[in-house]
Amino acid sequence: MKSFKVFALVFALAIFACLETQAQEIGLRFGNVNGNNVALDGVFALGEFSRVHGDLSFGGGGVGIDLLWNPIYRPIPDIEEVNYYLGFGPSLFLGDPFRFGVAGEIGAEYAFEDVPIVVGLDWRPYFILVETTKVDFGGFGLNVRWRLN
What we know:
Elements: H1 2-20, E1 25-33, E2 36-45, E3 51-59, E4 62-76, E5 79-95, E6 99-111, E7 117-123, E8 126-130, E9 134-136, E10 140-147
Antiparallel strand pairs: 1-2, 1-10, 2-3, 3-4, 4-5, 5-6, 6-7, 6-8, 7-10, 8-9
């Protein structure tokens, strides 16, 4: 029951953030997400070529949170619908065992013109600092998001 309350609070905050920020896309990420297989996925613009990419995942004995800054977010020349991005940021797993570290991100996405859907593929390696120190190179994922505006 406690995890449901945390989920409801975080989900409400995510919806509020989507409505109050400039942008935005919200959906799901499938693949290795901080020890889980599926996550709520959101993108919030910070400007024309910068954004925050956040994931909230449940399962695997806990809750995973990734909040990555994509300072490089550019369209691929001659293909307006395709963008690539690079980023990094903190990664947290609240469970047993507790994990804290940093994640990197490199990916590409396609924004459909006729429907407000964005589909992307990315690779997210993790460098875990706490509770044990290790590197995880297996963070591949598929993102499917709804463009809100």
